[in-house]
Design brief:
Layout: H1 11-22, H2 28-35, H3 39-48, H4 72-84, H5 98-109, H6 118-124
Helix pairs in contact: 2-3
């Protein structure tokens, strides 16, 4: 058994584990040893599935991820500000940098980004991520 919790288990493994405990009468410790899962994970899966009656509770879902810092309207506004160019936003020169874009998001939306996370935001908006 893994000393630091369970190994990653897919939906099929979770369903089998719950079936072994709830329908076939295995003890969680026996299943843990046989399947390489932690006893605590097994207990949680059994509880979550209402002792095997709600198998859909064990389905794998996509992790939700972090809540976006900008909503869709703010992202559209950011696109317009970027399209207008750096000089329209009060910067000298015609080149956007991640530091400038971060300064812009702070000023316009009171939202701060780490300069290393801005390329992903820009890419999601359809902008090139070749900024420094």
């Amino acid at each position: 058994m893994n000393q630091h919790g369970s190994k990653p288990c897919g939906e099929d493994v979770r369903l089998r584990v719950v079936k072994l405990v709830c329908e076939e009468g295995w003890k969680p410790a026996e299943v843990a040893q046989a399947m390489g899962c932690s006893v605590r994970s097994i207990q949680l899966w059994v509880q979550k599935s209402s002792r095997g009656r709600k198998k859909t509770a064990l389905k794998t879902g996509k992790a939700p991820g972090a809540t976006p810092k900008l909503d869709s309207q703010q992202k559209q506004r950011l696109l317009k500000l970027l399209a207008a160019g750096p000089e329209a936003a009060g910067f000298e020169g015609q080149h956007w940098t991640c530091a400038r874009i971060n300064e812009l998001t702070q000023k316009e939306f009171d939202v701060s980004y780490h300069v290393r996370s801005l390329p992903a935001l820009l890419k999601s908006l359809g902008w090139s991520s070749h900024f420094t």
